[in-house]
Design a protein that fits this description.
GO terms for molecular function: ATP binding; peptidase activity. This is ATP-dependent Clp protease ATP-binding subunit ClpX. By secondary structure, this protein is an alpha/beta fold. It folds into three domains: about 1-75; about 90-200 and about 210-275 and about 290-325, P-loop containing nucleotide triphosphate hydrolases (Rossmann fold), CATH 3.40.50; about 330-435, Helicase, Ruva Protein, domain 3 (Orthogonal Bundle), CATH 1.10.8. Helix content is about 45%, strand content about 15%. The protein has helices at about 40-75, 75-85, 90-110, 135-145, 170-175, 180-185, 215-225, 265-275, 295-300, 305-310, 315, 330-340, 345-355, 365-375, 385-395, 410-415, 430-435, and strands spanning about 5-10, 15-20, 25-30, 35, 125, 150-155, 190-195, 230-235, 245-250, 255-260, 320-325, 355-360, 405-410, 420-425. It starts with 6 loop residues before the first strand and ends with a helix.
Length: about 450
């Protein structure tokens, strides 16, 4: 560089800048002579940072002020009444979730009170058999809430460095559920489904090779559950040093995790038998017919049982609320078929009405559907599939005519695949009847 090129005037502050390296004058256009020195850039950056900080405070205060209206709309009894419209039974679980969500709102309200009382998060762990309504409860809760809510499948997560989704995906899903609003994201709720699938393997089955989908994932989730700044790239973008990232603080995000925890009832039963064991003439003899049922056992679950199942102690410490769900018997499944707003029977009645068909299920038919679901051991999630199998031929044939008809489905249609009774109602025209008969 020539001697006369070592000085230049900044277009902003008009100071004569001695140029010793490229950072003294980071912006310079040789064609126009426009230049900005590093001091001006520092000042501009500081102004922008201060403005963003002030704007964030205003947004935060508005968010907290709006919480009064949100709290009024989401009191525990209101949340439970809403869930009652869609979910049958599980009253205890509904109460726990309703209180947990309401307390989450209250915790946000109390954050800026200025006192020294810090309210800790009350993350929730849900246990219950397959098809008992865990995911359904949370999906309906998501529709009600005024804060962002995201469901992530924990079984798809892997330890950092392995092929698969990192744990940051859960926060990224919440970020997109909040329409890319970081303030809303930092006060949202994350539900990790299939959480039992990341339990570490028991001693006798432990692999000497790497375990990308189990204990490593739990270790990665630790800081996130407690509260840390999570950095993630845009959806579909791989992590690399040049990729732009978004940072979200998880301190105020409520985590709810759930899973079937298949086999945990055996661990609970084993612990209870060990506690009640006695030897001698005065010992009480256990009657085999009085074996404890699943519902009785799951209510007695303790953190120690979860540790034996394969959840690491540090994770359990960050999930203080244990919420258990009961199995669904025949009567409960019967109610699920008919009572909720989106009950399967109501859905099929509405579908068939489009083809001018009145659909009627006998109680015995619905009980047969419930019994099939119990036999499959898949709970409520198999109800619609059983109905679909039974009605496939019917839904194929009925649209061939526009006659007003009534279809009665009885138990034999479900159990023996017999054809249901189809009755042509009197308000159909004679011409249409002849066409239908032909």
């Amino acid at each position: 560089m020539a001697q006369n090129d070592l000085h230049h005037t900044c277009s902003f502050c008009k100071r004569n800048i001695k140029i010793t390296n490229q950072y003294d004058l980071p912006i310079f256009d040789p064609q126009t002579g426009f230049a900005i020195c590093k001091n001006c850039i520092k000042e501009i950056y500081q102004l922008i940072s201060d403005n963003e900080e002030e704007s964030a405070k205003v947004v935060r205060q508005k968010f907290i002020n709006d919480l009064d209206a949100v709290l009024d709309k989401n009191k525990p009894h209101i949340i439970k009444n809403y869930l009652d419209e869609y979910i049958v039974n599980q009253d205890h679980a509904k109460k726990i979730l309703s209180v947990a969500v309401y307390n989450h709102y209250k915790r946000m309200k109390c954050m800026d009170n200025g006192d020294n009382v810090e309210i800790e998060k009350s993350n929730v762990i849900m246990l219950g058999p397959s098809g008992c309504g865990k995911t359904a409860l949370l999906s309906h809760l998501a529709k009600l809430l005024d804060i962002p809510f995201a469901v992530t499948d924990a079984s798809s997560l892997t330890e950092a460095g392995f092929v698969g989704a990192d744990v940051e995906v859960a926060v990224r899903n919440l970020y997109y559920a909040a329409d890319k609003n970081i303030e809303k994201t930092e006060h949202g709720i994350i539900y990790l489904d299939e959480f039992d699938k990341i339990a570490r393997k028991s001693g006798e089955n432990n692999s000497i090779t790497a375990d990308p989908g189990h204990e490593g994932v739990q270790q990665a989730l630790l800081k996130m559950l407690e509260g840390s700044v999570v950095e993630f790239t845009a959806r579909g973008q791989r992590k690399h040093p040049e990729a732009p990232t978004t940072k979200v603080d998880t301190t105020n995000i409520l985590f709810i995790v759930g899973g079937a925890f298949v086999g945990i009832d055996k661990l609970i039963e084993k612990r209870l038998k060990k506690d009640d064991s006695a030897i001698g003439f005065g010992a009480q003899v256990q009657n085999k017919n009085k074996e404890p049922k699943y519902d009785e056992l799951i209510r007695k679950v303790t953190p120690e049982d979860l540790m034996k199942f394969g959840i690491i102690p540090e994770i359990i410490g960050r999930l203080p609320i244990i919420c258990t769900l009961e199995t669904l018997d025949e009567n409960a499944l019967l109610r699920i078929l008919t009572e909720p707003k989106n009950a399967p029977v109501k859905q099929y009645e509405k579908l068939m009405s489009v083809d001018n068909v009145e659909l009627d299920f006998t109680e015995e038919a619905l009980r047969a559907v419930a019994r099939k679901a119990i036999a499959r051991k898949t709970g409520a999630r198999s109800l619609k599939g059983i109905l679909e199998d039974a009605m496939l031929d019917l839904m194929y044939e009925l649209p061939k005519s526009k006659l007003h008809r009534k279809v009665v489905i009885n138990a034999d249609c479900i159990e023996k695949n017999e054809q249901p009774k189809i009755e042509i109602l009197p308000d159909s025209s004679v011409e249409e009847k002849d066409n239908f008969a032909g």
